[in-house]
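Aim 2 progress update. The chain analyzed this quarter is reproduced below.
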Amino acid sequence: MSDTLLTIIVPCFNEEEVLPETTKRLQEVLNDAIEENLISDKSNIMYVDDGSKDRTWAIISGYAKKSDSITGLKLTRNFGHQRALIAGMETARRQADCIISIDADLQDDVKVIRDFLIKYHEGYDVVYGVRDKRETDTFFKRNTALGFYKMMGKLGVEMVPNHADFRLLSKRALDEFVKYQEENVFIRCIVPLLGFKSTKVYYNRSERFAGESKYPLKKMLNFAIDGLTSFSVVPMRLVAYLGGIFFVIGLMMIVYILVRHFTGHAVTGWSSIILSIWLIGGVQLMAMGVIGEYIGKIFNETKHRPRYSIEQDLYTGRMEQGGKTMTPDVFGRAGVTLCDWT
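Predicted structure tokens:
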């Protein structure tokens, strides 16, 4: 029997519709991996409830009562997908030999978790799940995503194209990851910075099994802006270059105006003045916006607030007891309502 303890971390936000099927498929994957001697029989699934408003936590705690392989964290409020994932990673690293992060919506192929584990046993500390195709995405989302990856690459930000947050990290990679304590979190750019031996596993992405997407267009744009401004100062440099270009254009305009004046062709142009005001004003506002974005991030970093707060932890106590099921009394003190979910 392998002694590799795996924890599968699943961030959840209002996922009551998909949790039963997600649990079924992940447990099947765990059982198969245990039978193949890839992982320990104490391996588990950790759901991280990121401030859900529906019955997500009640379902998680109910499953945790019935199965030793299911645990959970309940955050005090909605902190966002990336921070919920970090909460799970920082909690799991105390016990797990490796972790795999995956979304609850079943768009990522759980069957390739076996391939992740094989690569881990081959000596890889980081295994990226990479989409082989993006046929399930809309034309707009597919092309904007590809454009984002290309732009980030040209700006000097190291990313794995078509990789989201479906990955495996070994314990030592995880220990190194938690040293990155910045407030503006963009995990998919931090992991390549770790420098450990890595590889990719390709898979086909499916449609969401149930529920609604947690990343509408506005949230996707904010996510992209956060990633860009957290790992590159190139936008600020571009603003500086743009300022230099307009300074040169201004000098050329001065020369042009002087020549027109001394040759007797000077004509006061209201349109050109208004156009210049609007153009320069627009550039200045854009520059202020870019600089303000960076100043805002500096402001957030200097406060050093916790990135998340845990209300209930079903993982730590269970793992310290060797994977045994917690007693009803422990659940009762935690304030968890247990139900027989099917």
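The radius of gyration is 26 Å. Strands lie at 6-12, 44-49, 70-75, 98-101, 126-133, 163-170, 198-204, 310-313. These observations will guide the mutagenesis experiments scheduled for the next reporting period.
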